[in-house]
Amino acid sequence: MPSTLRRSRRHGRECRALFTNRTNGHARTPLASTFEASANPLLTSRPSMILALYHSPNPHLPVHPIHRLPPELLVHVFALGSVDNVMFPILVSHVCHSWRAIVLHAHSLWRRVSLHPNSNVHMWKERIKRARLCTLNVVLASYPHARALYDIDLVALQMHLLAPHFSVLRSLDIRFNSYAPYLWNAALGPFCRSTSYLWDHRSPNPGDRYFNGAVETPKLESLTLRYPQNDDIKEFSLFGGFAPKLTRVTLEGVRLAWLPELFGNLSFLDYTHHGLSRGEEVVDEILSMLQVSSRIRELKLCIYHKETTFQALHLRRPLIGDDNIALPFLDSLSLRVDNEDSDIPSELVTIVSRLSVPGLKNLCVQDPCAATQALGSPSWYSTPFAALPTFMDAIRRNTSLCNLMTEGRWAEPSLLFGLAAQLPLLKSIQVDNMVIWG
Q1: Residues with Cβ < 8 Å from 119, sequence gap 6 or more?
Q2: What pTM value is reported for the model?
Q3: Cβ neighbours of residue 63 under 8 Å, at least 6 residues apart?
Q4: What angle do CA 424, 425, 427 make, to 5 degrees?
């Protein structure tokens, strides 16, 4: 005769089964075991990464529903998490055996390389190894208020880590926020070479021994170089003068040899002048750059001057045709002045007056001082730039302009409304993100 304890346990199991069967009108589907899942042809028809999902020491262990998600979906979720946290692939690889197998097989999750002064070089070397043949997105940056700062030796050490992988670079972002001598020499030196096929009149051939030492970046699409405190006037010639896929460039505080084979395919250019030259030298340098990169669609330009005892000389390239530079594909133009400028730089006004931009739709003129104004204080209460009328005269030639955005000392009511009356296609005028016309 069964004991009272056994009867109570049996009664409890029967009650739970009855409750389960009546909940939602049907019984819940039992979980498939590891053995059953691995025997299913629909689940084993994919690569070895799928088999790893259902591998377990206990073949009869039930498979959790999350392990039935397609690995492609999990990889996409992991990739989204890696956008905000570069260490995310390591975090998810420690969750369980299945996720670790997925992360290790998804080589694209390891393509981001983010180096800073405190980086563990051995850890990043292993991560680059896991990326296999995927292209790399490299960031080498120092941040303000950080304890450790870059010097020439530390930069050289990290560039030595990246040197074997220059050919698979997809994007390169180098930023220095603190001053140290010869930082550009250490960072950009490995990308330069003393000779180039451009000057030897020979086409690059990977099998030619003459070019075995060349630095090639055939997959590079984006380049960012920022070092505002730079005081080195040296001009760098990068990548052997050849980067066919390079379309986006951001520069600040660096001088580069602007070669057609390197920068001729740009669609986006954010250029802050290095400040080591003045007057006609600045105008000639920027206009020659824009003549080479005549296919750009978005241009951001800032000119400011540094207090130096020397000046970088620019070898002027002869302009083809007249003095005006044609940018037929330019759609968006953004101009910015430095905090210390009391007026629009004369070089900036000259450059704008010599640009031919028949397709320009959006113009944005920025003033960093606008962010320091008191809340609720309109920009037209501040004293506008003295050279603003001359600048507006140069803008009136762009009859295709549709949107005008101004800030701070760029805003002067009579000039803005007069401009609106003369441009037939102008749809809106904004002052500090507030629409005043249109």
Answers
A1: 158
A2: 0.79
A3: 31, 32, 33, 34, 37, 54
A4: 115
